[in-house]
Amino acid sequence: MQKFIDAMTQLWPLTNVNVINTLQAKGARHVIHVSTNEGHWVLKVLDPERTEEEARAYTDVLQFLSKLQTKIAPGILPQTDGRLYGRCDDRFMYVMEYIEGTQANETPEDEFALGQLTAELHAVEGYEVASTLDFQHTLRNMITRFKDRPYYEEYLRVLQNIPDFTIHRQSLMHTDIGPHNCLKQRDGNLILVDFDDAGLGSTYIDVGYPLICQFVRFHDETLQFDAQNAVAFYSGYQRKRRLTDEEIELTFQGGVFMQAMYMDAYGEAAVDKMWAILQYALEHRDVLKQAIRNEV
Question: Which residues lie in coiled coils (predicted)?
């Protein structure tokens, strides 16, 4: 870790850098809270697999959002030479504003506020850099998976029924909306964090993500739908931007796409459980869509 701190001191206009704690260490990625004479900051060190193009996209979106009147994301600190990201060995890194706050909770209050914040993000205009979540490329790759599973034909039919999201509404998307990526400040306002993969993409994939990936879960080996928090999130979203019946169906399908995409995200042993979550959502689609409509 020290080599990243040394590189940070050399590249950014910061002095007396001291590590407070590691906020996240996921694989080779590190998110580090530091104090300096110039204030508190967050150093993010990307996985070595991340390319310079990706580092540029991650930092460009933060710079763009920092210029908005509504605060949605942490600000980004340029290097001494004005560049937004640096490199240490084979790793790209950048420095963000430290947000004083705690992780948002899975409560109706925070979910409602998060829904509103998501709608505000989707209302942002003028950002033209595509998200690294490429819908068509990702879908093609998804079709090639799980051919050894007994449910592959059913899985394939699910994918074939997913609409072409590239022809529907596009907006600035986060790609991983949820309390786990949201900080609650002392004044109650929420700030989204972890904008890796953010960019121009499908509104419905983004707003659909929590519908299944967050709100449908196993509890003591029994699948349950968290209707209360789902209603809160989508009520907050629609306080800012009302969804039509067609958009509600697209939102549901966006959730299907994201759950299918993440089926192998937790390793081979979890694939069948992830498929069970998707099956549950498909079997209870009317209940899930009623939650979006606030009819539960």
Answer: none
